[in-house]
Fold this protein.
Amino acid sequence: MIGDGAVGLSAVLSAKRLGAERIILMGRHKDRTDLGLEFGATDVVAGRGEEGIAKVRELTGGDGTHTVLECVGLEDAIKTAFGVVRDGGTVSRVGAPQYPAVPAGFPVFLRNITLTGGVAPARAYIETLLPDILDGTIEPGRVFDRTVALDEVPAGYQAMADREALKVLIRP
């Protein structure tokens, strides 16, 4: 997972729930990556760019990962995703991309990497996931670390943008 925000942490929960044996979370915010470890990440890589790519490659015996989720990052995040995925692997963009074009030129093409992504059909998973949430098997609500009133929504968004809040819950 590239990204330690709410989407990346939710991806860690999902990967764990689906039985992933190894989950590498790339992120630099210790409070968030600590939560990622609690959610099921097996490794945390704080490095970015070439340093982060080298560390993930080291953790995977030089091969890279089978699958990478790029979780609402900037263009450098998708470049990192291509750097850490193994040849023949898959990069999925989840969450709304923050860049207009994907730098997937001929070198990526030659590595036979699949690029996918799109809007999550969240309603399709409610019947399966809601019982696990209600019985406490998974606790995705832990990503909400600040509550604001309706008239404080702009400040809540600013707190998320400034990395002072992970995810803001709005109360009426």
Summary: The first helix runs from residue 6 to 17. Residues 132 and 138 are 6 Å apart (CA to CA).
